[in-house]
Amino acid sequence: MCKRSANIRHRTLQTPVLATCSCSFPQLIIPYQARMLCDHRVNRHVRHLVSSFTRSPCSIWILDPSRASSSRFTYPQSSGTSSLVHSSSIEQRQLHRSSRNTAARPLQVLPPFCMMSSLAPLTHGTESTSPEADAATWPEEDLSSTTGCHGGFYPARLGELFEERYVIVRKLGYGGFSTVWLARDIREKQHVAIKVLSAFATKQAESCQLAEIAVCDTLQRECASSLDPGAGNVVRPLDAFTFESAAGKHFCIVTEPFSYSMSTLCDMLTGRQLPLKRIMKWLKDTLLGLRFLHERCHIIHSDLKPQNFLLKICSPGRTIERELITRPSLIYDFPKDIPPSDLGCCPVQSLPLPFTIDDDDRTVSFDTVIADFGHCHFEDKQMSTIVQPIALRAPEVALGLKWGKEIDIWSLGCLMYEFATGAWLFHPEKGGKSDALQRHLAQIRQRTGADIPRHMLEASPYKERVIDVLVTGPALHSVEDVINASNVSFSSIEELEPFVSTMRTFLRVDPTERPTAGEALEQINWDVWN
Q: Which of 64, 97, 130 is the last residue of a domain?
């Protein structure tokens, strides 16, 4: 072990964060507490994720808030010792995270213990000057936001009891309308995940502007009675309940716990690329889940994106127990001299669960489920004409036409390309003199090589903007050209043709020509991918 390796002995690892930096390797930032683990434990923490999907190097940063500095070593090492390099402070380094709907925006890296001085105005009852200031102050979800500001998050406490059976033991993550918590079900003696909707999201669901409550009821009923194997490829509700807080009513969904999203997994890999065999394994799981949703539940997901696919945890009991011991839950730090009577809310740090306990097991299963049904629609009750993230939006949705379950199949084609190349298939939001709709249609023609059917253009409420309009702009290569030219990961060259062929069937511009999930399961030769 090199001299500086000893400085990181006994550090307790927390959630890795990808840093997009101008360097040759992807940067994996790992904060730590005052206690420490030696660097080979850091290696073990990411070894399975890195080695299972790529053999390329990955720079791993170990954040030290106490010394305002950081250390780095490269995985895999070229020798038996870590290549550890000391660096200047990384807390102040601005990172960039991409958004499908907006341009990349700077994101500040937060240390494990966020000093409560920045939170004090909110936790001590001082009114903030603007929603923007509120959102920038809280380390994760904005706990000061109200229902009127599309917020109303509930600040669950570690050790808090719900429904006289669920004890909160860890925070797993948060989103725009909810937080997710790991809890111990003391009645069934097992761990569960609880998704707590914000007061705003609950109000929207109860007024039928969001279908999540009705979808939860349908999934709970159908999963319990169906023998369809696809029921195991969607997040299955085990229980549901509501409670009141100062912000309003909160609807809660209890499910089994899951690990990282596909988005987080890709962030950990060089180039954000998955091997074709892994992509096809994800595709089979997803098609099974969609067949169940479409044919059995008559539900259209309409929001399929990398963040909404979760990895199943291998040996969940052992994995969770070890996680709670080796990476205990943390709250963001606060001044110790605050009297208990004045102590406000202490935000809890999100710590997602790994999907395997055995870092050395290269044969671990790679199983995924479809998650997040907040934007789902029933086939006979569509509550919006515009759905899907813009970069994954099907042409019929972009044109404002009637849409159905075929839009989920289109999204799969876009995601196959993204997982293989590490890049989006379409960028309709990027500038130019033409509007976003015209750019999107032009990119669809360029990527697929197919014209938009005349009957679709004629039926569109936007036909004056798109019909007979020649959109100029940078030429895009076809799907085949990019896949063949990209450094995609495959075991055999024979994998490329069936992969591209499957993707093309999902990207047929006319929705009536796309296969259903059930048809795709039958048409694909899965033996190629075993």
A: 97
What span, in angstroms and rounded, lies between the C-alpha atoms of 239 and 444?
Answer: 42
CATH no. for residue 472?
A: 1.10.510.10
The CA distance from 360 to 126, in Å, is 51
CA angle 190, 198, 184 (to 5 degrees): 10
Say if CB 368 and CB 76 are below 8 A apart: no
Neighbours of 497 (CB within 10 A): 11
| Domain end point (choices 97, 132, 153) | 97
Task: Classify residue 180: in a domain, yes or no.
Answer: no
Residue 121: per-residue pLDDT: 29
Range of the domain at 430: 272-299+386-529
Is 86's pLDDT higher than 70?
Answer: no
Residue by residue, DSSP assigns 225-262 as H---GGGGGB----EEEEEEETTEEEEEEEE-----BH
Residues in the chain: 530
**Number of helices (H), then strands (E), in the chain:** 16, 19
pLDDT in tens, 87-111: 333 323 333 333 344 333 333 333 3
Count of beta carbons in the 10 Å neighbourhood of residue 472: 10
Residue 237 lies in a domain: no
Half-sphere exposure of 110 (CA within 13 A, CB side): 18
As for how many domains the chain has, the answer is 2
Q: Which residues fall within 8 angstroms of residue 382, CB to CB, at 6 or more apart? A: 300, 403
pLDDT band at 442 (very low <50, low <70, confident <90, very high): confident
Quick check: is 441 in a domain?
yes
Tell which wins on pLDDT, 383 or 289. 289
User: Known binder of ligand: residue 277?
Assistant: no
**Parallel, antiparallel, or unpaired: how do β-strands 69-75 and 85-87 relate?**
antiparallel
Say what the pLDDT of residue 471 is: 54
Q: Is the pLDDT of residue 197 over 60?
A: yes
Which residues, including other chains, have CB under 8 Å from residue 27's CB and lie 6 or more apart? 18, 19, 20, 21, 59, 60, 61
Q: Give domain status of residue 516, yes or no.
A: yes
What average pLDDT does range 114-142 have in this prediction?
45
